[in-house]
From TrEMBL:
One of its GO terms (molecular function) is phosphatase activity. This is HAD superfamily hydrolase. The lineage of its organism: Eukaryota, Fungi, Dikarya, Ascomycota, Pezizomycotina.
C-alpha cells in the first residue's frame, strides 16, 4: 500500500460539535417550508438529525421534497439555502466547540509536518470556515484546503456523492491510496468509500448508547476502523498505514 501523506477531515461533529446547533436552525426553516405547502408534519432539530445527518441543507431539501412529494422552484430553494447558512453561522459563532480531543491531535499533526491536511465537508464553505475559526482550528489548514460539496464544486452536491472527495484529491494532488479521512456519518463515510479513500469512522460525537450501533453501520459501509475518542487517532492511523489494501476491519 502506498505511504499515507494526506489526511482529510470532515468538519461537522468530526472536528467541531456543530450538528445540533445547525439542525436547530434547519428545523425552523424546514417547518416554514412545510407550512407553506399545508403539510402538517413538523420537525425538531433532533428529528432532522435522525433523518438527514451528513447531508447539507440543499441535500436535505431535496430529500424533503421527495418524502413529501412537492417541488421547490430553484430561486426559492436558493433563497432558503442562503437563509439557512446565515442562521447556522450565527449559532456556530456563538456556541460552537471542538470535538473532545480534536485540537490536541491537530496540534500534534501540525507540529510533526508529516502529513498534509485538508477539511472536506458537505456544508457551505462560509459555515465550515466559521466553525473552524470559532474553535481555533483554522490555523491548521491553508485557506484553499477547505473544501465544500455545497460551494467548491461547479455543480453543488452533498455527500454521499463522492464528488467532493474526488475534487479534494485532485486539488491536493493525491491519490486515494495516499489518503485517509475521518468521518462520523453514514453519508460522509459512503462518500469517501466511493472515492476509494480509507476511512476512520468517528463515533465520539454520538450519545454513548449509540456508539455500538453507529460503529456497526459505519463498518458495514466499508469504514476500516472505528474511533470513539480522538485520543485513539494515532492508533487508528497506524492501523491503516500498516494494513494491506484489502484490510480486515477493526474497532478499538
Amino acid at each position: 500500500m502506498p505511504k499515507i501523506t494526506e489526511i482529510f477531515f470532515d468538519c461537522d461533529n468530526t472536528l467541531v460539535l456543530s450538528e445540533e446547533l445547525a439542525f436547530e436552525a434547519c428545523a425552523d426553516l424546514a417547518n416554514e417550508i412545510l407550512e407553506t405547502r399545508n403539510i402538517p408534519d413538523r420537525y425538531t432539530g433532533e428529528q432532522l438529525i435522525k433523518d438527514f445527518v451528513g447531508q447539507n441543507f440543499r441535500g436535505m431539501m431535496i430529500s424533503l421534497q421527495a418524502k413529501y412529494k412537492f417541488e421547490m422552484e430553484k430561486d426559492e430553494l436558493e433563497m432558503y439555502v442562503k437563509k439557512e447558512e446565515d442562521k447556522v453561522i450565527a449559532k456556530l459563532e456563538a456556541k460552537a466547540v471542538p470535538c473532545v480531543g480534536a485540537n490536541e491531535q491537530l496540534d500534534k499533526l501540525f507540529a510533526e509536518k508529516k502529513y498534509h491536511m485538508a477539511v472536506v465537508s458537505s456544508s457551505a464553505l462560509r459555515r465550515v470556515v466559521a466553525s473552524i475559526k470559532k474553535v481555533d482550528q483554522d490555523k491548521y489548514f491553508d485557506e484553499d484546503m477547505v473544501f465544500s460539496a455545497a460551494t467548491s464544486l461547479e455543480k453543488p452536491t452533498s455527500k454521499p456523492d463522492p464528488a467532493i472527495y474526488l475534487h479534494a484529491l485532485k486539488k491536493c494532488g493525491k491519490t486515494a491510496a495516499e489518503t485517509v479521512t475521518v468521518e462520523d456519518s453514514k453519508s460522509g463515510a459512503l462518500s469517501a468509500v466511493r472515492a476509494g479513500i480509507p476511512v476512520i469512522g468517528y463515533v465520539g460525537s454520538y450519545a454513548p448508547d449509540m456508539h455500538a450501533e453507529m460503529s456497526t453501520r459505519l463498518l458495514d459501509l466499508g469504514v476500516k476502523i472505528i474511533m470513539t475518542h480522538w485520543s485513539e487517532f494515532p492508533k487508528c492511523l497506524e492501523f491503516i498505514e500498516n494494513s494491506p489494501a484489502e484490510v480486515t476491519q477493526s474497532s478499538l
